[in-house]
UniProtKB/TrEMBL annotation:
Any GO molecular function: prephenate dehydrogenase (NADP+) activity
Organism, as annotated: Agrococcus carbonis
Pfam families, per the entry: PDH_C, PDH_N
ACT domain span: 292-359
Family: Belongs to the prephenate/arogenate dehydrogenase family.
GO biological process: tyrosine biosynthetic process
Superkingdom of the organism of origin: Bacteria
Protein name from the UniProt record: Prephenate dehydrogenase
EC identifiers of the protein: 1.3.1.12
Domain Prephenate/arogenate dehydrogenase: residue ranges: 7-288
């Protein structure tokens, strides 16, 4: 594989994103210099192989600022001043506010290009880092008029070396986009999960894949999300108002379900959801439609490996997979996602090998 960055690359902040970037670059032979306000966090990331502690006299080619949003602009400004020959990017999840703050500070934004990898985990810190975190994931480059193509190409090289897919945008376009595809889902997930806090134990024992899917990101760090939402509040409020209106209409319809038009209103809301989810890109960014096949699997060692091997032997390409367990049951259900034309062949092959296809 051809690597584009020569390095060195200085990473400021050794949380999940900073450590993951360091791990990915170090694995590709790029010299990585690590900096963190916490010496313990920095040494931990270094111990995991994300790079080495930065030293006086280092002269990085590219600087990646991976710190919380409320201090991003100040740290970027300090890095631009300390390293006048380096290009600086940041990976904060909002882009318009840091750029505006840098201009207000009088920073040299001709060497700054904000970016945002659309990748993450519910866990944070160096322990959650992975050099493969960005593979196949979109990574936004929030361009502006003050930076040249030549300087900005270093950020392109960073993204491509980490296996991500560069997506060009403006800071304002980016912030409006993440409001609907990232920030609103986080709030919906958190609000839904909050409904479970006082739910009876009997209800929670019935929890299946639906509620787990909706609430998965509710485990995210509240302190970080307060900063993200605060920096993108206008765009998030716009989406919340629209959702609020939809919820009010749906509530009114259900309260008077026997009234003329109420059932249609509920059906229209559900159908709109079908249409929305159908627009989401699938594997490799395509809009290919997929079908789910469910297979019962015993809770014994080696069963999942055997099932996946049997799927491969049937020459069926697996697009996605997940497992659901019912409380107290000694078996689970594996949900396999494949292209529709492979369903019949997969069904027949699995049943011939003794698997119970349940749906």
């Amino acid at each position: 594989m051809t690597h584009r960055l020569r390095g060195p690359v200085r990473i400021v902040g050794t949380g999940l994103l900073g450590t993951s970037i360091g791990l990915g670059l170090a694995a590709r032979g790029v010299e990585v210099q690590l900096v963190d306000a916490s010496p313990t966090a920095m040494r931990l990331a270094a111990d995991f192989g994300a790079g080495r502690p930065a030293e006086p006299g280092d002269r990085p080619e590219l600087i990646v600022v991976a710190v919380p949003p409320d201090v991003t602009a100040q740290v970027v400004a300090a890095e631009l001043e300390a390293f006048p020959d380096a290009v600086v990017t940041d990976v904060a999840s909002v882009k318009a506010v840091p750029l505006a703050e840098l201009r207000a500070l009088g920073a040299d934004v001709s060497r700054y290009l904000g970016s945002h990898p659309m990748a993450g985990r519910e866990r944070s810190g160096a322990l959650a880092g992975s050099g493969d975190l960005f593979v196949g994931r979109p990574w936004v480059i929030a361009g502006h008029d003050a930076i040249s193509y030549q300087r900005g190409s270093l950020v392109d090289d960073l993204i491509l070396d980490l296996g991500a897919v560069p997506i060009e945008s403006t800071p304002d376009e980016h912030d409006r986009a993440v409001a609907i595809v990232s920030h609103l889902p986080q709030l919906v997930s958190s609000l839904m999960a909050a409904r479970l806090a006082d739910a009876p134990d009997e209800a929670l024992r019935l929890a299946g894949g639906g509620v787990r899917d909706v609430t998965r990101v509710a485990a995210s760090d509240p302190a970080l999300w307060i900063q993200i939402l605060g920096a993108n509040a206008p765009a998030v409020v716009e989406q919340l108002r629209a959702l609020q209106a939809d919820l009010a209409s749906l509530t009114d319809a259900l309260e008077a379900i026997d009234a003329s038009g109420s059932r249609r209103a509920v059906a229209d809301a559900l159908r709109a959801g079908n249409e929305g989810v159908a627009r989401l890109p699938g594997k490799h960014g395509t809009h290919t439609r997929f079908t789910r096949v469910q297979v019962r699997i015993d809770d014994r060692p080696g069963q999942l490996a055997r099932l996946l091997t049997d799927i491969g032997d049937a020459e069926v390409n697996l697009e996605d997979v997940r497992i659901e367990h019912a409380e107290g049951a000694q078996f689970g259900v594996v949900e396999i996602t494949v292209v529709p034309e492979a369903v019949q062949r997969l069904h027949e092959a699995l049943e011939e090998l003794g698997w119970q296809v349940v749906a």
